[in-house]
Amino acid sequence: MTSAFGVRDIFVEANGLRQHLIARGSAAAPSVLLLHNLVGQARMFDRAATELSDRFQVFALDFRGRGESAWGPHDEYTQSVYVSDVEAVREALGIQRVALVGTAMGGGVAMAYAAKYPERVTALVMNDIGPDVDGGGVNRISDRTDSTPTAFPDLKAVVAYYKEHFPAAARLSNQRVEDYARWNVRLSDNGLYVWKMDPAARHVGMGVPEQDELWRMYRSITCPILVLRGEHSDILSRETAAKMGREHPDARVVEVTGAAHPPLLTEEDAMSALNQFLPTE
Fold first, then answer.
1. From CA 248, how far away is CA 106, in angstroms rounded?
2. Rounded CA separation 139/97 (Å)
3. Torsion angle, alpha carbons of 172, 178, 179, 181, to 10
4. pTM over 0.90
5. What digits encode the pLDDT tens for the residues 68-117?
6. Exposure pattern of 207-222 as b/e (b: 16+ CB <10 Å)?
7. Domain 7-134+208-277, second-level architecture
8. Cα end-to-end span (Å), the chain
9. Residue 270 neighbours by CB distance under 10 Å
10. Which residue ranges make up each domain of the chain?
């Protein structure tokens, strides 16, 4: 179903930058904030956000340096700054408590936020990310970002890039990938499509704490946790996901059948888990 409240673009001044969110659903409903991955943006959640907006007020944030949000200083694309951005955005929106759903990098930010501001978070979803990540997957992403083209002649070339380099996109139709890709690029003055992303924001793992500290953060979280793992993920191993289930008293782990890194949250397994997990009061 599609929410009767439609899609709303919101811009807020937060942490010294103009930051962009997409809002859906009723302001009277419980709030959910969706946080994207390293090279994503808010539009990656369009389908999931629409599904959730029947029961929740759903916000999807463009992290600084992505999408319609302003670019920041090059040395401030770090986890701690993203956490402070989320808090500043929450304050600007006037939301008291929120459920956080974070994909990959966004899940790490959500975990760190929940550890720092436990009174603000009703529930935490970590989508294909954990305190420990597989080196092979990290190297794959790092190699991809280091070799990413800066411009494309047309949208078909952007789609081809996504289909070749993003496991999640490889399973989708060209039209669906194009529907997403058009939000991630803009037509430049020279007629080429370029990324709507600050190149400085592409560095993998910038400013992320050491593994022991990440596990300490995870164990300290006081709200319920849902861990989603793509069946074919090369970032979150089955062993680490199982450990996350053991190391927190109120964590549950769901493997998303057929998904690589990261699940799109539109898969039947993922959406069913979200609908059962997210608090409606």
1. 20
2. 36
3. 110
4. yes
5. 999 999 999 999 999 999 999 999 999 999 999 999 999 999 999 999 99
6. ebeeeeebbebbeebe
7. 3-Layer(aba) Sandwich (3.40)
8. 21
9. 25
10. 7-134+208-277
